[in-house]
């Protein structure tokens, strides 16, 4: 019954894969827009990305629900929703980007507020899923915090989650509610082709080499390379500690080529800067 066409199919399926990150990735079925308005959807947002929320609401031709998100002097999060959401289908748009803990707490409190206000359905739209890198026990006596975040979102009262480019696909399995995993590679491929960043002297598109910053990102890089009809390279990287990467070498031909390095998370940018320096 949604009027936002999306998919959680694999990246390799060109016909069914749809980009869903940012406004350009939203495909609005305007034939069903009136029906959707009668269904009375609402958009609620915190402080993580107001510009994105504004653009989404402009595409949907609705206004964001009147919501107050503030903090007490001790740092506690307080949420108040002025508009009636009883029986409504509510989309909570909140990325858990830095400051991760603040934005995550806002998300949880907003969901709880909507649950106690008798919203019919609550969908958490999370462009960046914080703690996604803590998706497994990589050493003894360490947490799986990505699972803890999933538990918190469900306990708060979410009925569904829309996530984008999850760092680890198994995070979908951490939830007992539906999770739609969206991909943005299609949108990035269109931008690379149309923006002119990989053009020759005559303005024609020159196929770049797509580079994965590590072996774990090969699937993502391969999907982009397929859409650009590009060659693929990968960086052989080692980590001596969290946020400390050592680049060993590049596997693939990159000499004299334009290169597109594709990754899902840029934190300190250490991997990217070291990759650029590799000769």
Keywords:
ATP-binding; four-stranded mixed beta sheet; 13 strands; globular; disordered N terminus; transferase; ribose-phosphate diphosphokinase; 2 domains; five-stranded parallel beta sheet; Rossmann fold; 279 residues
Question: What does it look like?
Answer:
With 279 residues, this protein is of the alpha/beta class. The protein folds into two domains: 19-182, Rossmann fold (3-Layer(aba) Sandwich); 188-277, Rossmann fold. The protein contains seven helices and 13 strands. The chain has a five-stranded parallel β-sheet with strand order 3-6-7-8-9, sandwiched between helices. A four-stranded mixed β-sheet has the order 12-11-10-13. α3 (100-116) runs parallel beside α4 (145-156) and α5 (185-195) crosses α6. The protein is globular, with a radius of gyration of 21 Å. The termini are far apart. Its EC number is 2.7.6.1.
């Amino acid at each position: 019954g949604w009027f936002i066409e999306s998919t959680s199919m694999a990246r390799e399926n060109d016909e069914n894969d749809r980009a869903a990150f940012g406004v350009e990735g939203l495909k609005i079925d305007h034939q069903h827009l009136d029906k959707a308005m009668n269904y009375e959807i609402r958009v609620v947002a915190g402080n993580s990305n107001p510009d994105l929320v504004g653009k989404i609401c402009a595409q949907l031709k609705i206004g964001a629900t009147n919501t107050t998100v503030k903090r007490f002097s001790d740092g506690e999060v307080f949420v108040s929703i002025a508009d009636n959401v009883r029986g409504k289908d509510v989309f909570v748009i909140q990325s858990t980007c830095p400051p991760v803990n603040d934005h995550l707490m806002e998300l949880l409190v907003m969901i709880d507020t909507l649950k106690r206000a008798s919203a019919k359905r609550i969908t958490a739209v999370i462009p960046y899923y914080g703690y996604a890198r803590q998706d497994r026990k990589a050493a003894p006596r360490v947490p799986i915090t990505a699972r803890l975040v999933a538990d918190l979102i469900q306990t708060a009262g979410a009925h569904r989650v829309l996530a984008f480019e999850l760092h680890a696909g198994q995070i979908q399995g951490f939830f007992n509610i539906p999770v739609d995993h969206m991909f943005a590679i299609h949108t990035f491929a269109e931008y690379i082709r149309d923006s002119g960043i990989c053009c020759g002297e005559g303005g024609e598109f020159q196929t770049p080499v797509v580079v994965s910053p590590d072996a774990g990102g090969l699937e993502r890089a391969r999907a982009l390379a397929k859409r650009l009809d590009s060659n693929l390279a990968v960086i052989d990287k080692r980590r001596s500690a969290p946020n400390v990467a050592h680049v060993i070498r590049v596997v693939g031909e990159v000499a004299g080529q334009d290169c597109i390095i594709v990754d899902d998370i840029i934190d300190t940018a250490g991997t990217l800067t070291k990759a650029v320096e590799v000769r």
